[in-house]
Amino acid sequence: MKDGLLPKWLLHALLSIFWWGVWGFVVKLGSDKISPRQMQILFMVGMVPLVLATLIRLSFKVDMDGLGITYGVLNGVFTTLGLLAYYAAMQRGHASLVGPVTALFPLVTVVLGFVLLHFAFDLHSVYVRGVDGRLGLLLASGYFVLGICRTVSEIRSEPNLSGLFAGVAHGWIHPDVALSPGS
């Protein structure tokens, strides 16, 4: 699954990071102007052209698997609930804190996979999967180390959990820096 310099999964993951980063920035700008509910409505309006483009690309042929449809609808429900909470948090808090704290959501995914689907996770299985697994582990480890280093210096100036979360989740973002000083 490797066509170019990067494995496809890593290219898509990096694109996700980029687009979600831009999205988080735009959310902060918008949440200072309109309510979380309005943000959600406009979010869905913004999706319409992309949904239509995807349907055209699929020649309007959508899989009709019942369980797949159920999971797709649940995906929309949980995404909407999460986004409404995220928009409200951005409206009331600093982007430099809200972003990193909400970026911990994969922990819920991992716990659910472990508890409900009995997924196993060990470093050996990541290592033996080859360069792809080691590269992902290296990126995640570097991210964590940067966060720990930043956290040590942050605790002195902000001795509370928000400083700790911000430091660990995004070591390069100082908790006192916000995209809108009035928040």
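Next protein, fold it too.
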Amino acid sequence: MRNLIILLICVTALACKAQSPILPLYNDNSTGYPPNGHYLKDIDNNLDPFVGEWKWVIGSSSLTIQFVKVEMYHREYPNYSNTGTISRYYDALVGEYQYIENGIEQINLLPIIYNNEYIYDFSIAGYIITNNEKGIIPCVECNQDIRVVQLSFKEPQNPQLLGKIYMTHFIENGIEKIRARIFNIGIADLTAEYTGPRGLKVPEGIYTFIKQ
């Protein structure tokens, strides 16, 4: 009997997922937030080219990132405009990284292993896809209609530090590359007593990663 109940729960959960109305994750005509219960699917496979390992190197400094695509990630959080709950499904990217500065390893969170965790427990995560109208990423090698993936970027030693990474994928002379810009956003819950670092260990700037 117990096994039958468990089976029914699993079937019900799968049925709910299967019945979720699908919307494109990237929608340049969107005018608002998607309705509750919808699945924002990466219909155009904009996230797929980023999956794998990428490396930026200058001298004895390097930044290596590994990305995994997460499909139909369920996110549920309070609706602050009323007493209800917002519940949607998303395709997303999660990543971890190793940063070496002048030959000294500063951070190493590789390899990435995803087992259905909360995506924002990872150092790099998100699902926002936009365009490059504002020139966030300088990329003369890219197509005019490039799409930009925007993710959160943080370091576990200093979780109060907030950062962002904007990325676009392109191919140059047969080599897959990512052009990215990393920003320091600020410090969460800053108080007068805070004496920690003011920015991420990974410097702000433009990075060109090569597929490994």
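About the second fold: The helical segments are 2-18.
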